[in-house]
Design a protein that fits this description.
96 residues; mainly alpha; Trp Operon Repressor, Chain A; 2 domains; 6 helices
Length: 96
């Protein structure tokens, strides 16, 4: 599931690392992505949180109003992906 490294993607990710505040994130992502793309990414993160907390597909679907296909995609990434979700979930837990 690894994303191929290339100049454009490296530049995109490097630009994310330049963001310093939540307000800067809002400004940049509102220019970069559609509202739906931003909501979808936030929803996937929330699904990852729920699944990692032991919630079932049905519970996640009811809480978030998402399809089982979306939940399944996130679950596959949690189980077989490169560890990105888990890395972020662990860091978010440390902040609390």
């Amino acid at each position: 599931m690894s994303l191929k490294h290339d100049r454009q993607t490296d530049a995109l990710f490097q630009s994310f690392l330049e963001l310093k505040t939540l307000d800067e994130c809002y400004l940049y992502f509102e220019d970069l992505c559609t509202n739906k793309e931003i909501r979808d990414m936030g929803q996937r993160l929330e699904i990852a949180k729920l699944i990692s907390e032991g919630k079932s597909y049905l519970q996640a679907a009811e809480l978030l109003g998402v399809s089982s296909a979306t939940i399944g995609r996130v679950k596959r990434c949690l189980d077989y992906g490169d560890g990105g979700y888990q890395m972020i979930l662990d860091r978010l837990k440390e902040q609390k």
